[in-house]
Amino acid sequence: ISLDPTATQKEYTALIAQGVYYNGAPLVTQKANYIKDNGFKGAYLWALDYDAVGPNSLMAIIDDILN
Q1: Which of 24, 26, 45, 52 would give a disulfide with 56, using CB separation of 3.0 to 4.6 Å?
Q2: Which DSSP helix (H) or strand (E) runs through 30?
Q3: For position 17, what pLDDT does the model report?
Q4: Are 49 and 57 in contact (CB under 8 A)?
Q5: Per-residue pLDDT for the chain (67 aa), expressed as one digit of tens each?
Q6: Helix 58-66 vs helix 25-37: crossing angle, to nearest 10
Q7: Between the CA atoms of 13, 17, 19 and 20, what dihedral angle is there, to the nearest 10 degrees?
């Protein structure tokens, strides 16, 4: 985020070396809504220690939607 302040709203940024792919807030929101709408039991995050703190936290987005 320090290299690309708009990264949380993207799925890819070319501003970092060869490019970085990740799930940003829009796709995580879409995925969490899919989980909830289809009655699945929860979500899994790989490498939770890389999640942002505060309003950019993907885990917080998931928690808000699923709870």
Answers
A1: 52
A2: helix 25-37
A3: 66
A4: no
A5: 667 777 777 776 666 666 666 778 888 999 999 999 999 999 887 777 778 888 888 899 999 999 9
A6: 30
A7: -80
> Residue 27 corresponds to which amino acid?
L
- The DSSP secondary-structure symbol of 50 reads G
Pairing, β 20-21 against β 12-13: antiparallel
In single-letter form, the type of residue at position 39 comes to G
Residue 31 corresponds to which tokens in the numbers above? 């995925």
Positive or negative CA dihedral for 46, 48, 54, 60? positive
Which of 61, 54, 60 is closest to 26 using CA atoms?
A: 61
Residue type, 17: A
Token duo for residue 58: 């993907």
